[in-house]
Amino acid sequence: MEELSRTAQKTKNAVRESALRLFDEKGFDSVTIEEITQKAGVAKGSFYTYFSTKSDIIVDEFLKIDAYYESWAAGNLRRYKTGREKLLAFTRAQMKYVRDVVGNHNLKILYANQVIQSGADKILTTKDRQWVKIIRAIIVEGQDRGEFRTDQDAERLALLFNRSTRAVFLDWCIRDAEFDLVKEGEAFIRDWILGALSHPLTSS
């Protein structure tokens, strides 16, 4: 059974990697499931063992990313005392994973797919993502400790935090990874976002 599981995972990975390459080469809408399975060297029916639609492959990639975030947070966040430290540490881990594991090329494919798909209900921005839940929990803790502003609730602040962080990922994609994602991402949070989380804007 264990060997079968490894074989199944290998087949799923082959289908996913073939699909991502074809999406990049031809565009998401132009790629057929038959092309994906041919490129992967598997039977067409194998696709439906793991995915229902082509979009499921994009969702699966984001779920893999979130699974890493959840695992990292569970094993590491308790090492840090303050909300500021936790946000910086999580951002550093997040940026390292995307830079070193997901890669600039694949992130472009994922973002491009989310942009061209119609509707607002997308995996990239859903409130149910582990990324959102982790940030929201850190902000709640920071508010309870008096570190973060309380004029807006944690739900709203987490939305703004994650929206801002996506800007760094998008810029990295647009600029073809010309800057170090980890260094710039951490600096963006430290020098810009933490200030906004700590001090509400006041009118003069």
How does this model look, in words?
There is one protein chain. 26% of the residues are buried. The chain has helices at residues 2-26, 33-40, 44-50, 55-76, 83-116, 130-144, 154-174, 181-198. It is elongated, with a radius of gyration of 19 Å. It has 2 domains: 1-52, Orthogonal Bundle (Arc Repressor Mutant, subunit A); 54-198, Orthogonal Bundle (Tetracycline Repressor, domain 2). The chain is an all-alpha fold and 204 residues long. The mean pLDDT is 90.
Secondary structure layout:
Elements: H1 2-26, H2 33-40, H3 44-50, H4 55-76, H5 83-116, H6 130-144, H7 154-174, H8 181-198
Helix pairs in contact: 1-2, 2-3, 4-5, 5-6, 5-7, 5-8, 6-7, 7-8
Radius of gyration: 19 Å
CATH topology title of the largest domain = Tetracycline Repressor, domain 2
Total of helices:
8
Q: What is the domain total for the residues?
A: 2
Which runs of at least 5 residues are low in confidence (pLDDT < 50)?
none
Following the backbone from N to C, one meets helices and strands in this order, namely HHHHHHHH
CATH superfamily placement of the largest domain: Tetracycline Repressor, domain 2
Mean pLDDT: 90
Please give the CATH class of the largest domain: Mainly Alpha
Distance linking N and C termini: 68 Å
Helix content: over 70%
How would you characterize the largest beta sheet? none
Quote the beta fraction: under 5%
Number of strands: 0
Shape: elongated
Based on the structure given, which CATH architecture of the largest domain is correct? Orthogonal Bundle
